[in-house]
Amino acid sequence: GAEPDAAGDLAGRAVVVSAGGTREPIDPVRFIGNRSSGRQGVALAEAARARGAEVTLVAANLDEAVTAPARAAGVHVEAVETTAELRDAVRRAAAGADVVVMAAAVADFRPSVTPDAKIKKVPGAGPAPIALVENPDVLAELAADRLRPGQVVVGFAAETGDADGSVLEHGRDKARRKGADLLAVNAVGAGRGFGVATNEVTMLDARGEVVAEAAGTKREVADAIWGVVTKNLPSI
Length: 236
Ligand code: CTP
Ligand code: CA
Hints:
The protein is an alpha/beta fold. The protein has helices at 39-50, 64-72, 83-94, 138-145, 167-178, 218-232; strands at 14-20, 24-27, 30-32, 54-60, 76-80, 99-102, 109-111, 132-134, 152-159, 182-187, 198-205, 210-217. The strands form 3 sheets. It has an 8-stranded mixed beta sheet, with helices on both faces. A two-stranded antiparallel sheet has the order 2-3. A two-stranded antiparallel ribbon has the order 7-8. Bound molecules: cytidine-5'-triphosphate (CTP) and calcium ion. Cytidine-5'-triphosphate is lined by residues 102, 104, 106, 108, 135, 137-139, 155-158, 174.
C-alpha cells in the first residue's frame, strides 16, 4: 500500500486470519452455507504479509483463484470446509499468534446428523425436516481462552440493522457480548459488504466504543484495521 508508516510494522509478528464462509453438510452432496466472498479476509492476510507478518490464512471454501495471490506473497493458506475444521485450524495457528482476526462468516448452526447417503425425496411426501444444532462460537472462545498471552483478538460483525436496532447498535451489543479486543462492524445487504469490492467498517473496542472508521477498497480497509491492531499490540 501507499501508507509510508505501514511498512514493516508487523515484522516479527505472527497473525492468523480466517476468511470465507463455512459449510455444514446436510448429506454428501448438500450443505448449509453463506454468501461470504472471503475477499475482506484475504485482503487482511495480504496486507499483514505486506507489513511484514508471518501470516496463516484459514480459508473456508475459497476458490484457488481468490487465495493464489496471497499464497504467492508467502501467506500460508489452510483450506477448511466446516466450522469444526475452521475452529481446529484457527486454534492450532492461534497458539503461536500475536493476532487472530475472525473475518470468516461462520455458520451459526449445523445439521445434527449427516447421513452417509444422499437424502432422497419421497414424491408427494413433502420435505423431511433438518434438525440443527448450534456451532461453537470460535471468536468468543478465542477471546475467553487467550491462547497466547497478550494476543489481540479481532472479530467482524456483518449487520443489516432491523426493528431491534441500527447496524451500530447491533455492533455495540455484539462487541460487549463477544469479549474480543476489536470488532469491525460492517453494513451488509443491498449491494453493501458481501460480494462487492469496497467496504465500510466501524471499529469498536470491547466496551463497544468507536475507535476508528474506515472506508474504501477491501485492501484499504484491511490496512486501516491493521493500523488499529498495531496500536493494541504489546511491544517486542
Ligand atoms: N463467529 C464465530 N463463530 C460462530 C459465529 C460467529 O467465530 N459460531 C465470529 C465471526 O467470525 C465474526 C463474529 O463472530 O468475527 C461475529 O459473527 P456474527 O455472525 O456477526 O455474530 P453472531 O454472534 O453469530 O450473531 P448473529 O449471527 O446472530 O448476528
Ligand atoms: Ca452468525
